[in-house]
Design brief:
- With 167 residues, the chain is mainly β.
- The chain is 0% helix and 51% strand.
- Strands 1, 2, 3, 4, 5, 6, 7, 8, 9 and 10 form a ten-stranded antiparallel sheet that branches.
- Strand 3 and strand 4 form a beta hairpin.
- The chain is globular.
């Protein structure tokens, strides 16, 4: 069965999944326009969210309390409609420093088809609050997001059912 759309949930019992969301309505939004249930998601349901930004510094983020000195994987599905510089990032909010090394702490999203993005990071020995960010930076345009999850470990699992091709 598919997982119901319930915002962020703690599915850690019985798996290494820490947080999960099909949509992004529970995420903090800094100035962009979030349109939930905008498009067909990779599982064939009408749950993909559109995020639109206007060239100003805009972010959509979720904060997590994580264990120290531990590997985690943040993943999500993305489809770029018209954005010129969409990115994702992971920050250590406790220490005000990037989690991932300075040369690779963010990546640009350019795919025009649904694609799963995942990034592995290791928490610091002192940091416990981390933020996962989408559309961070100055960009313009629209992008679709679906199926964000954070898992303990150095690889992304397949907790989100995606057996139906999406347009």
């Amino acid at each position: 069965p598919t997982i119901p759309q319930l915002g962020m949930m703690d599915w850690a019992k019985g798996s290494n999944l820490i947080e999960y969301s099909e949509d992004f309505t529970e995420w903090a939004n800094n100035g962009g326009t979030l349109t939930p249930n905008f498009s067909i998601a990779p599982n064939g349901s009408q749950t993909a969210s559109k995020y639109s930004i206007d060239g100003s510094y805009r972010i959509i983020r979720y904060l997590l309390d994580l264990d120290i000195s531990t590997d985690y994987t943040f993943s999500f599905y993305v489809k770029n409609i018209s954005s010129d510089a969409a990115t994702y990032r992971v920050y250590d909010n406790t220490n005000a420093a990037d989690v991932i090394g300075a040369t690779s702490y963010y990546s640009q999203i350019s795919t025009t088809d649904w694609s799963r993005v995942d990034v592995t990071f290791t928490t610091s020995a002192t940091g416990t609050e981390y933020g996962v960010y989408l559309m961070s930076g100055s960009a313009t345009g629209d992008i679709l997001f679906w199926g964000a999850q954070v898992e303990e470990g150095s690889s992304a699992g397949n907790y989100i059912l995606t057996d139906v091709a999406a347009a």
